[in-house]
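To close the section, here is one more complete example, presented without commentary so you can practise reading it yourself. The ligand is manganese (III) ion.
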Amino acid sequence: MELEYDYGALEPYIDKKTMKIHHDKHYHAYYDNFMKAIEGTELEGKDVKEILSNIDSIPEKTRTAVINNGGGFFNHRFFWTILKKDVPFEGEIAEAIKEKFDDFEEEFSNAATTQFGSGWAWLVLDNGELKIIKTPNQESPISKGMIPLLTIDVWEHAYYLKYQNKRPDYVKNFFNVINWEKVNEYYMEAK
Ligand code: MN3
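Output:
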């Protein structure tokens, strides 16, 4: 479980120290705790995506641990892939976004800044329709049958070292590190 780019690759928008702690400590902890939660259960050996896509099948006594830690594992694993600096906003996804939203940046930012407490804002495909949603804690859109295309982590651990309490500044700068090529790829796969 290594980050596929340098911890400093997103500077100055997301700083190296935050990336290192976020990836190596927080993400790894979710993974380790997810593995512990499924160890010795019927879920052992299944991919987290398959498990979270069918949360009713998770044994009740481990369900909360699996949703929290499996969600933390899956959501971050996805998040790392959609981050890259200076990727132009283009491709079919860009066309679809322009058609669907009057002001995508404003609507997405609004979801990200108004998520109360910890959580995520997402661009998803829901039955073929582009939607902006937010999820609390480590809940994942895949548990609601939605396909994630883009996300921002708005837990304080994602920005506090650099931005402190200024979540809106972090959200504003996030638009400089969206890997639109990857988002487009997810969109084309999902369509
Ligand atoms: Mn996080």
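Once you have examined the tokens, check your reading against these statements. The radius of gyration is 16 Å. Residues 22, 26, 76, 153, 155, 157-158 surround manganese (III) ion (CB under 6 Å).
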